Amino acid sequence: MNVLIWARVSSREQREGYSIDAQLRATRERATKSGWTVVREFSVAESAKRGAERIAFNQLIDWVKANAKRENLRAILSHKLDRVCRNMRDAVRMQELEDKYGVSLAFVENQFGPGPAGALSFNVMAAVAQYYSDNLRTEVLKGIDERAKQGWQHSRAPFGYLNVKEDRDEPIQPHPENSKAVMRLFELYSSGRHTFESVGQTLADEGFVFRPSAPKFHRTAVSYILNNRFYIGEIRRGSNYYQGRHQPLIDRAMFQLCQDILSGKNRRATPQVNMPRSGGLFTCLHCGAFITGERIKRKLKGGGVRPHDYYRCANNYPDDNHPSVRWRADDLEDAIVADLAKFKMPDDEIAAWFRVSLQSAFTDITDLQRNQRVT
Questions:
Q1: CA 121, CA 113: separation in Å to the nearest integer?
Q2: What is the CATH number of domain 161-263?
Q3: Hey, where are the domains in the chain?
Q4: Residue 139, Cβ neighbours under 10 Å: how many?
Q5: How far apart are CA 354 and CA 351, in angstroms?
Q6: CB neighbours (10 Å) of residue 49?
Q7: How many whole angstroms separate alpha carbon 12 and alpha carbon 18?
Q8: Looking at the domain that runs over 2-147, which CATH code has it been given?
Q9: Beta strand pairing status for 2-9 and 73-78?
Q10: Which of 13, 77, 178, 264 has its CA 20 to 30 A from that of 37?
Q11: Nearest 10 degrees: CA dihedral of 51, 55, 61, 65?
Q12: What pLDDT band is residue 125 in, cutting at 50, 70 and 90?
């Protein structure tokens, strides 16, 4: 009789000492003792790749359908039932192979007799296998939820961090180079003067690399980083956020400013032509949105138009307590001049002292930058 061998182990079973080799050895010995001929072997370890078991199982089904008659295949040999059937759906698919192609199941450990009693035993064992699979999934998810509540990311750390398995106290740590790229990305976008494309281009010009295969930060990468609360120390699990125990890269104020720009509450600071006080130079005291300019043209009775420049809060969705913030251009300019007048030095002696101090400070900064370039 010609048979096909199927072997499977989960990542958990591998940790407990089970192996593909042990299953293959047992099934081959069973085939030899029974005088069966093995025409092909299928084996998969679930830890090799997520979803690999389902892919291999579907390949098994397709191969049996295509080759059962040509190979004179009579059975699928496995170590025991739960190696083949993880749920009732798998059991139904195996039953279809027997009904349509004459390929039954054979096992090293489990034996099912003919007739209704054997079918009942098979169905009970299949139901037990599904219970085990469902219960294992529940326990795994429970463990992931608990780990998130304790402040640790279950999956791979996002860009800007490293997974350090050797350090149990701090398994997720900032990457020495990529973390700087993340901080610089937030700094650029929070200024309100950049789009996703210009952020990516600026980072590339400054020497930051996203990944070797795609050095430049593309739009999707920039958007993902800007919206990821992991960088402010939070962990997402489903729809819930938990306080993480990893080191944040961004403070909440900068993160929220970027969110305001993304949502349109704060528009990107692009100065308008002939309106120099727009484009992020001023912000609203009540909500923090940028002050933007608008020009209204009114028609004159005698023909022609007269422009009127105004500056207003760019928040298009203010709350009920937000006052109307709208200034005529001349009034805003007078207010700026009045504020600047308050900075006037009370006498020439203090003015001279301030001038010397300022020159000394700039000299120190210039010397420091020159030394950094040399080193």
A1: 8
A2: 3.90.1750.20
A3: 2-147, 161-263, 270-344, 347-375
A4: 11
A5: 5
A6: 11
A7: 9
A8: 3.40.50.1390
A9: parallel
A10: 13
A11: 160
A12: low
